[in-house]
Amino acid sequence: MSPVLEMKNIHKSFEIGTVNENHVLKGIDLTIHEGDFITIIGGNGAGKSTLMNSIAGSFPVDQGKISLEGKDITNEPTMKRAKYIGRVFQDPRMGTASRLTIEENMAVAWKRGKKRGFGIGVKDEQRHSFQEALKRLDLGLENRMKMEIGLLSGGQRQAVTLLMASLVTPKLLLLDEHTAALDPKTSQMVLDLTKKIVEEEKLTTLMITHNMEQAIQYGNRLIMLNEGNIVVDIAGEEKQHLTIPDLLELFHKNSGTILNEDALILS
Ligand SMILES: Nc1ncnc2c1ncn2[C@@H]1O[C@H](COP(=O)(O)OP(=O)(O)OP(=O)(O)O)[C@@H](O)[C@H]1O
Ligand SMILES: [Mg+2]
Hints:
Elements: E1 5-14, E2 22-32, E3 37-41, H1 48-56, E4 63-68, E5 71-72, H2 78-81, E6 85-88, H3 102-111, H4 124-135, H5 154-165, E7 172-176, H6 184-201, E8 205-208, H7 212-217, E9 221-226, E10 229-235, H8 236-240, H9 244-255, H10 261-266
Parallel strand pairs: 3-8, 3-9, 6-7, 7-8
Antiparallel strand pairs: 1-2, 1-4, 4-5, 9-10
Helix pairs in contact: 5-6
C-alpha cells in the first residue's frame, strides 16, 4: 500500500533574489505511513510551519515532489487539498468563522469534501450528530450550539476546531502548535482531546510542538528539524524509551549544534 504522504527532496526559499533570501527547507525527504502520529520539534525558524504549509499547499514548493496515497499533489491548490487535510493552527481565531454559530461552523466543516451544498443551513438530523460530537468534548457546548463561535474562550474554540477538523475523517491532520496560545490547564485539556480523537479515529497526524516532554509523550514517531533539515527521526520502541537528555544528545550528534532546551520549551 502507498504511504499516506511522501515528500521527496522538497526545497522552499522565501524572498528569492533579494538580500533577505531565505532557504528554509533544504531537501526534505519524509514518508508518512497510515496511523503515524508524528510530533515535530525544532527551534524558532527551523522550518516546521513551512514544512506543514508545504503539505497543505499554502504556497508552491521550489523543488521536489509531494504525493498523497501515491498520487502526485505537488501542484494541487490548497483548496483542493483542504478536502482531505484537516488543520488546526496556534491562533484560536483561525480555522473557524467568528460570526457564525457553533452549529453553522460545524455544517461548513461537514460539507468539506462533499460535492454539493454551499449553504450553511443546518438540518435537524445534522444538528443531532453535531450535538453528539460536541458531547465528546465534555464542555457543555452541546447546549450552546446557536452561540456565535467568536464568543467562546480560546480553549473551547480550539476544541471545536479540532472536532471540526476530524468531522469528515481527514487523510492527514496537521496541528501547528495548536495548544501554544492556551494556559497550561486548557492546553492539557486540548492535548488530551487530541490524543482521544487521534486514537479513536485512527488519524494520521503531524503535531508541531515546542515542548520536548510533549513531543516524547505523544505519538509513535518524533521528528526534529534544524535549519531546514530533518536531523532526528525516531519511532516505535526507540521513541518510547527516549528521555530529554537522549533527545538533546541525538540532536547534537546529528546536527553538530548544541540545542538550548530552555529556549525550545519556553519559546
Ligand atoms: N510566507 C513567508 N514569507 C517569508 N518568509 C517566511 C514565510 N514563512 C516563513 N518564512 C521564514 O522562514 C523561516 C522558517 O519559518 P517557519 O515558520 O517555518 O519556522 P518554525 O520552525 O515554524 O518556527 P517557530 O517555532 O517560530 O514557529 C523563518 O525565517 C521565517 O521568517
Ligand atoms: Mg511555526
